[in-house]
Each structure stands twice: as C-alpha cells, then as structure tokens.
Amino acid sequence: MLLELDDDQRLWRETVQRAVAKQCPASLVRAIADGGADADGLWQWYRDEGWTELFTAESFLELAMVLEELGRASDPTPFLATTTQFAPLIGDEFDPKQSGAAVYTGVTAHRDGNGWVLDGAARFVLDGDRGQRLAVVTDAGVFVVDGDRVSARRVAVFDPVLHVADLLFDGVRVGEVDRIVADAERARHIALTGMAIHTVGACRRILEMVLLHVKERHQFGVAIGSFQAIQHKAADMHVAIERARALSYFAALTIATDDPRRRLASVMAKAAAGEAQSHVVRHGMQCFGAMGLTWENDLQFAVKRARAGELLLGGAAEHRAVIAKEYRAADF
C-alpha cells in the first residue's frame, strides 16, 4: 500500500483547496448562520463539478481530500452525509444529483403483504431533515425511502450550519423493490473514516487561525507566539492533528484498496480525530483568550464543527473501547 500521494493526487488536493476557499469562504458560512443566505447554491456547485460522483471505493482517497477541506471550511451542505453515509449503503443505486442521509438505528421493519412497514424513531441523524432520500438500516435489510415520507424535526445543535434531525417512522409502507442488500458494516467503516477526516480538517483550521493570531497579538511588547507556553500548545496541536490525519488517510487507503484492515483502521481514525479535537479545541480557545468566545470571531465555526465531529457516530472513548476489545481478542 503506497502511502505517498502521486502528482495527480497532489494536483487534485491543490485544486480542491483553491475551489473551497473561493466557493465556501467564512463569509458565506457566517451569512448562513445568521440566516441571511442558504447553502443551495453551494450544493449545486458541488454537484455540477462532479464532486458527489466520488462515491466509489476507487475514488475514496480523492473524496477524502475533499472532505478534509470541507471540514476545514465548516461546509454547510449535505455533502458529508450524502457521500460517506448514504451512498455507501445504496451502492450503484446512488444518484449523485440527489442528497441523502443514513439511518443506522431505531427503525424496525415487518412484513405486510407483499411489502414492508417501517416503524420507529431515529435520533440525531445527520442531514435527516433535508436529505431527499434516506437509507434506513434494519434487521431485514436496507430500505430506501423518500425523505418527504418521514416526519423530520431539526434539533438545535451548537454548530449553527450543521443539520441534525430526529426522524419518526410511523407505519411507512415500502415495497420489496425498495429493499436492497448492502454491506452495512463496510458502509459504517466509510462513514467513520469520512467523519474522522472531516474533523481533522476542522482541527487544521483552528491551528491555522491560532498561528496567525499569536503572530499578530502582542503582549509586553512582543508577539505572544514568542512565549514558550504558546509554542508548546501549538506543537501539541500540530502533533495531534498529524497523528489523526495519518490514521484517517491510512483508513481511506484501506477502503480504496478493499483492505480487510479497514475495520480496525476506521475505528482508530475516528478515535484519533476525537482525541485531536479535544486537544486542539482546548488549546485553541486558550491561545485566543476571551475573544475566541465571541460571535464575531470565525474561530467558533471550526471549533463547533470539530466538536460535532467528535460526537457524531460515537466519541473517542467508545471507539477506544472497540480497539481494546479487538486486541484483547487477539492471541499474542
């Protein structure tokens, strides 16, 4: 497995960085948070550029680079949920022009004549309120349901541009044609890896803003970045980010090459990303001081996205427990 990017991949990463900086600036994110704009135009741009077509295993490394940059930009669209949660569950039936969300737990399916009936409630579904289609995981398989057939309520979360919803399935009838056979375990590996890389991108943004701030902020006649305590915090942030980034891209490579190590690699990546955001958010807020807590400071968007990335799909402690159980089961 080659861990270095080739020339084409490096060019792709640079292209994505420039495009995201232009199409999804902090001013747009702030306007959406303030209610003065929406994300429809940006989502349409992603689709027109073909970014939503990067859902196959072979293109997952390229998708990972997009996800990292969108995490850095606090992307307000349903891109993350659509490409890393919904698409892996429905496979070849995925339409890159439509948004989607995944429901992993809380819903049951039972036979009713020639069809099925879905019942239950799913909490904290990423983009569940605006996904045009839903992939619902049940014991009877994965069902694809139109989003407007489900009662959805967006819940308040600390990231103002992130959509998280509670969904109610009250006797939703679906046909046998809506049931697909999917590798839900593999789809979860992709979802975990995508969330990890997205979180790493948000952490990168925090560190970048901190480095810029400590160079400009002066105390006692010198830049505070010259203080050893600040330098130590920045170094710790960098190490945590690079560790999580390396594990996330390794997990992406295992998915791209269908390596069986992806099961553990994805869990390790999510745990490392959660640990990284803990260090980065704490040190970042300390380096900024009280001004980092204000609404006027763009630091808030990266901090909130990093925090959300830790909580969605399970926190670091949960995934560390999975890793520990895995190694206890091994016969050394």
How would you characterize this protein structure?
The protein is an alpha+beta fold. The protein contains ten helices and ten strands. The strands form three sheets. Strands 1-4-5-8 form a four-stranded mixed beta sheet, covered by helices on one side. It has a four-stranded antiparallel beta sheet with strand order 2-3-7-6, with no helix packed on it. Strands 9-10 form a two-stranded antiparallel ribbon.
Quick recap of the structure?
This protein is α+β, with helices and mostly antiparallel strands and 332 residues long.
Q: Which architecture of the largest domain would the CATH scheme give at its second level?
A: Up-down Bundle
Strand content: 15-25%
In CATH terms, the superfamily of the largest domain is Butyryl-CoA Dehydrogenase, subunit A, domain 3
Count of beta strands: 10
Keywords: FAD, Flavoprotein, Oxidoreductase
Cofactor: FAD
InterPro entries: AcylCo_DH-like_C (IPR036250), AcylCo_DH/oxidase_C (IPR009075), AcylCoA_DH/ox_N_sf (IPR037069), AcylCoA_DH/oxidase_NM_dom_sf (IPR009100)
Pfam family, one: Acyl-CoA_dh_1
